[in-house]
TrEMBL record:
It holds the Pfam family Pkinase. GO terms for molecular function: ATP binding; protein serine/threonine kinase activity. Keywords: ATP-binding, Kinase, Nucleotide-binding, Serine/threonine-protein kinase, Transferase. It comes from the Bacteria. ATP binds at K72. This is Serine/threonine protein kinase. Residues 44-310 form the Protein kinase domain. It comes from Pseudoalteromonas porphyrae. Signal peptide: none annotated.
């Protein structure tokens, strides 16, 4: 089939579509519709978008024989050299013949836009499963570990023609593993970081032919950057491509799924040996995630050799902690409302550590761009894991605010969180608890604040030629009213206005600040963030009025706040957050969670088969 008529590609940055400018949002929607329409014209039915990543957008559809296909498009906003990689991805995928890998169908190029066509892996990717399910059980991790170990063996034994030519996938992580629950089937997708290995696991060069040996290829790396939250140190620092890269991806994946995190960096504070896994497997995973290469390699070899016997262990469901409680409270909001959650955090500054030893690969790389944008390059591992755990909270339909204050020997957390999907309560509790445990592992003194808000409610105002904001009617700030018991209403509450934040650069007009202070007299919780750009301003906010008797005054002040906000001329970001009570939770600092292994006598810990939905 020939994809002839596809035009006008426009793919924007990955963020909530609600935060794009009106113009960009429209273009984005048009673009998605064009893709769907064109794929439909080509004869595919039931076309839908099923995924997106740093590099591209992925659509699925059925061919004329009702076979499921996947179409991957690269983001038009990326440099041409990066977009060209879709063709390299197509080539590597075409080289792999494995039941766990979706079959390559075709690579088409229309104008500058490439489209990779392949079989669809059935099921749901493991990152999505993890967000719903929370921590995977010991049995699920063990089963997955064996499957992944077998994938590693297959990649090492891969032949290129007749010569053995191990392949490195280069980006093994939960979202690149598609899991089919019904058939217990696993697929490895996204071959965009894949290359032929240059060295074997012992570091000896692999050359497929004489020409390779002659060319300079053996002295420089051919490695591609995988996801910076999951790749190991060697891939990050530009070592030659080796099967060890994928061992690292597998270790990160198992660790992330066992702990319900979205990265590998938390292992110093929440080691695999604290997650209720069988002792042998836990030690292997911790070993593979070690900072010491010799330990890592030894653990990797052990994993490859012994995983089949480790997988024979009897691992019935057990409940190691009778009751799962959130370390900080959260409340359920209406299930009907599904916020498109976006997180905004300030004071990342103090989480940084000078570490300029990283040798970085290709600065053009989209992943690397992300690495810099997300301030990860000079941040310690635990701090990275903490930031990733905050981003994970934003993957749930939740709004609210959090403040972490690290003092002499304690951590103080203030919070106000509303979750809008009860069925995710169990997994969300684990996500919160991870955030707290990681925060306990941070030893610097300082303050970190973040707000989770619904991007759908963000107010956007465009500027005219003079910089003034254009609007026909002054937009209104949204709020909801919750009538709390009067005993609650009289409780004191705190307000966050604690000195200048180094990450805030917008100077707000005094009248805006005065308004916020007046609002502070009324019992409520919420946040407001002014993001003033050269061409427009976004006002992110959520407000919950906790004293219904003051609604008229509250509304009047919000209105006044908007009137003054449109007077902002400066460019930058500034915000306020208000958390409801002074009942701050105090936690001791804790470098590392204590050991917890799968019990030797599982019968004593019989699972009460808790359904996550009941929690
Ligand atoms: N063949 C496939 N079958 C089923 N789902 C797929 C397939 N290929 C991709 N997906 C889904 O689409 C998502 C994004 O695809 P992919 O990882 O290839 O894109 P990417 O832009 O390279 O992402 P990343 O930034 O994560 O590397 C995957 O997480 C997966 O859920």
């Amino acid at each position: 089939m020939k994809a002839k008529e596809i035009r006008n590609f426009y793919i924007n940055e990955e963020q909530s579509v609600y935060l794009l400018s009106h113009h960009d949002a429209k273009k984005h929607r048009q673009w998605l519709n064009i893709c769907i329409k064109q794929l439909t014209l080509l004869g595919y039915s039931d076309v839908e978008m099923i995924g997106s990543g740093a590099f591209g957008f992925v659509f699925a559809g059925l061919d004329d024989k009702k076979q499921p296909w996947v179409f991957k498009f690269s983001r038009i906003t990326l440099a041409q050299s990066v977009r060209d990689r879709l063709e390299d991805e197509a080539y590597m995928l075409s080289q792999v013949d494995n039941p766990l890998v979706p079959k390559f169908y075709a690579f088409e190029r229309i104008k500058k836009q490439g489209i990779l066509m392949m079989a669809r892996a059935l099921g749901e990717d493991l990152e999505k499963v993890s967000l719903k399910r929370g921590r995977f059980s010991a049995a699920a991790i063990t089963d997955l570990a064996l499957k992944l170990r077998n994938v590693l063996i297959d990649l090492r034994n891969q032949k290129n023609g007749l010569t053995p030519q191990p392949i490195v996938h280069g980006d093994i992580k939960p979202s690149n593993l598609v899991w089919d629950e019904a058939n217990q089937g696993l697929s490895l997708v996204d071959w965009g970081s894949s290359v032929y290995a240059q060295v074997d696991s012992a570091g000896n060069p692999i050359a497929s032919n004489f020409m390779d040996l002659m060319s300079g290829d053996l002295s420089t790396t051919n490695a591609r950057m995988g996801d910076v939250y999951f790749i190991g140190d060697e891939q990050m620092s530009g070592a030659k491509s080796s099967p060890r890269f994928d061992e690292q991806g597998v270790a990160s994946t198992l660790y992330a799924l066992a702990s319900a995190q979205s990265c590998r960096f938390g292992a110093q504070v929440i080691p695999a040996s604290s997650l209720g896994l069988p002792i042998e497997l836990a030690k292997v995973i911790d070993g593979m995630l070690s900072k010491d290469k010799a330990i890592r390699d030894r653990a990797g070899d052990y994993f490859i050799r012994n995983m089949p016997s480790m997988a024979k262990a009897y691992l019935p469901p057990v409940t190691l902690n009778k009751e799962l409680r959130a370390h900080i409270p959260f409340w359920y909001g209406s299930d009907n409302e599904h916020p498109d959650t976006v997180v905004y955090s300030s004071r990342k500054q103090f989480l940084r550590q000078a570490d300029h030893n990283q040798q970085l690969l290709d600065v053009n790389d989209a992943q690397l761009d992300r690495y810099y944008k997300e301030f990860l390059f000079d941040t310690g591992d635990t701090e990275k894991a903490f930031l990733a755990s905050i981003s994970r909270l934003a993957k749930y339909p939740a709004v609210g605010g959090l403040s972490f204050h690290w003092k002499e020997d304690s951590l103080y957390v203030e919070s106000s969180l509303i979750m809008h999907d009860k069925s995710l309560g169990h997994a969300f509790t684990q996500a919160i608890n991870n955030t707290v445990m990681l925060a306990q592992g941070i030893s610097q003194k300082g303050l970190f604040k973040c707000c989770l808000f619904d991007a759908r409610k963000t107010i956007q105002l465009e500027r005219d030629g003079t910089g003034a904001f254009k609007f026909e009617q002054l937009p209104e700030l949204d709020y909801e009213v919750m009538n709390l018991k009067s005993s609650d209403v009289t409780r004191p509450h705190s307000y966050f206005e604690d000195g200048k934040d180094p990450d805030e650069q917008l100077k707000l007009p005094n009248k805006v600040i005065k308004c916020v202070f007046e609002l502070n007299q009324i019992h409520h919780t919420g946040c407001i963030i002014f993001e003033a750009l050269p061409d427009r301003m976004k006002i992110h906010h959520y407000y919950r009025l906790l004293d219904a008797s003051k609604e008229t005054e509250f509304k009047r002040l919000l209105n006044k706040l908007m009137q003054y906000a449109v007077g902002i001329i400066d460019v930058g970001v500034a915000g306020f957050m208000k958390l409801p009570y002074k009942n701050t939770r105090e936690f001791s600092l804790c470098d590392q969670q204590s050991e917890l292994y799968f019990p030797k006598d599982p019968k004593r810990f019989d699972s009460d088969a808790t359904d996550p939905k009941d929690n």
